[in-house]
Amino acid sequence: MTAITNHLPTAELQALDAAHHMHPFTANGELAEKGVRVITRASGVTLTDSEGHEILDAMAGLWCVNIGYGRDELADVAARQMRELPYYNTFFQTTHAPAIALAAKIAELAPEGLNHVFFAGSGSEANDTNIRMVRHYWAMKGKPTKSVIISRKNGYHGSSVGSGSLGGMTAMHEQGGLPIPDIHHINQPNWWAEGGDTNPEDFGLARAQELEKAILELGEDRVAAFIAEPVQGAGGVIVPPATYWPEIQRICDKYEILLIADEVICGFGRTGNWFGSQTMGIRPDIMTIAKGLSSGYAPIGGSIVSDEIASVIGSGEFNHGYTYSGHPVASAVALENLRILEEENIIGHVQDVAAPYLKEQWEALADHPLVGEAKIVGMMGSIALTPNKETRATFAAAGGTVGYICRERCFANNLVMRHVGDRMIISPPLVITTDEIDMLISRARRSLDECYAALKEQDLLHSA
Ligand SMILES: *Cc1c(COP(=O)(O)O)cnc(C)c1O
Fold first, then answer.
1. CB 251 within 8 A of CB 215
2. Is the C-beta atom of 429 inside 6 A of ligand 1?
3. pLDDT tens digit string along 379-395?
4. Which residue's CA is the nearest one to ligand 1's atom 10?
5. Which protein residue's CA is at the shortest distance from atom 5 of ligand 1?
6. Rounded to whole angstroms, what are the CA distances from 174 to 150, 157, 168, 415?
7. Residue 159 CA: which ligand 1 atom is closest?
């Protein structure tokens, strides 16, 4: 076979992809018919595809390219590390400088009391670590019955058997026999979709109090931990009412339930602070990290663990780990990414420039006839598409039909904006400039207009 490169005609790449490549979260048969889009290069916030389209990536890849594409420093660090020490494990009483330096740096950046890092290759793996770690922690403390982890419907924590069970995605649970035992799901703080006549503050409080109800029903002696994303990402960028997190924190404290903040999206500047927990004012015992940790330049994740848990776990052997825990090349790349985030004051750019500007433009989209609520925290935003703003109605068409039409209009207008059902979401690189935000918003508006016209034409503007 000749080498497969970007220089092959698009149709040839598509045919080979369709023949051999199974895509995640994709109906592969349908995609093969349609023809996949081939991304060839990227720089800053812009992707280029094999047909020469230049596309503004308002999703930062998959929520991860926080520093933007095309930073040579990371490539140089990776090459240097590969030449010096491409791999060594951290299992058998050995270590190496990249893992040491990254763990120390993460401990420095993390909130007080979180000073220990268990590395993984991804967010899913890190959450699998968390399941075993919190259960083992309570067993070591002489409370082996504390094994239930409470999480939320429509939360996302990864796609492995463990992390997919923690997540509350019914479409995932339906395939492959999930969830595993002792995972309990409570309702999400999604006021737009589920708040009914309650005001957002009361609703947020009520949803948080479901945690207390669950603890009392299950029994305090059965519950190990509560896990949640500070702001739900894959569930549709659901921003909880301000009343939600303080009540969750109160309940975790009262019943001594470990709080795991899944910071895989929220971490490393996304919400305008180093961690979403700081934005939401919570004090987790464990934080899950991945994605923005390396800005996606290398696969790496981990758990940032409290002094207390690390000391209990460390008093014996924890029979757990991954071949690539603390992988030297991924660690070196992540460390360089953190250096750039810090030295270039990218979180300052988010706080002072990008987030306030984006917020103003994004919330103004709510004047569009198709848009119900427009929510945003830092650099993650969502809009709810609706046929009726007053009643917060859903469309009569199957959920996601309208969102998909809108997403296709975005692609046609050289904008990557994702849909989750009939919510449109963005999570652009943190380095995005105000000019690029203008471009993002004008393309989004044009796409919404075209979507609205298409819905009229196809008679899809009816409420369920
Ligand atoms: C993406 C994501 C994960 C899973 O990370 P992977 O690297 O895809 O395994 C876990 N939690 C959250 C909140 C995520 O967004």
1. yes
2. no
3. 999 999 999 999 999 99
4. 157
5. 123
6. 19, 16, 11, 32
7. 9
CATH class of 37-70+346-458: alpha beta
Structure tokens at 177: 């026999």
Percent of the residues in the chain that have a pLDDT greater than 90, as a whole number: 99
Domain 73-344, what fold? Aspartate Aminotransferase; domain 2 (3.40.640)
Predicted confidence at residue 1, as pLDDT, reads 58
Q: Does residue 2 carry a pLDDT above 80? A: no
What's the CA-to-centroid distance between 219 and ligand 1, angstroms?
Answer: 30
Q: Per-residue b/e over 224-244, b at no fewer than 16 CB within 10 Å? A: bbbbbbbbbbbbbbbbbbebb
- Average pLDDT (222-235) is 98
Q: Tell me how far the alpha carbon of residue 123 lies from the centroid of ligand 1, in angstroms.
A: 4
82 C-alpha to ligand 1 centroid (Å): 26
DSSP secondary-structure letter at 288? Answer: E
Answer whether 232 contacts ligand 1 (Cβ < 6 A).
no
Secondary structure of residue 126 in the 3-state scheme: helix
CA dist 421 and 424 (Å) reads 8
pTM, two decimal places: 0.98
Asked if pLDDT for residue 65 goes beyond 80, the answer is yes
Does residue 156 have a pLDDT over 90? yes
Domain ranges in the chain with CATH number 3.90.1150.10: 37-70+346-458
Label residue 112 exposed, middle or buried (CB < 10 Å: 0-12, 13-18, 19+). Answer: exposed
For ligand 1, say whether the CB of 234 is within 6 Å of any of its atoms.
yes
156 CB near ligand 1 (under 6 Å): yes
229 within ligand 1 shell (Cβ under 6 A): yes
Query: What tokens does 362 get?
Result: 């994004």
Q: What is the pLDDT of residues 323-348, one digit of tens each?
A: 999 999 999 999 999 999 999 999 99
Confidence of residue 291 (pLDDT cuts 50, 70, 90): very high
Ligand 1 in contact with 326 (CB < 6 A)? no
Residues of the chain with CATH 3.40.640.10: 73-344
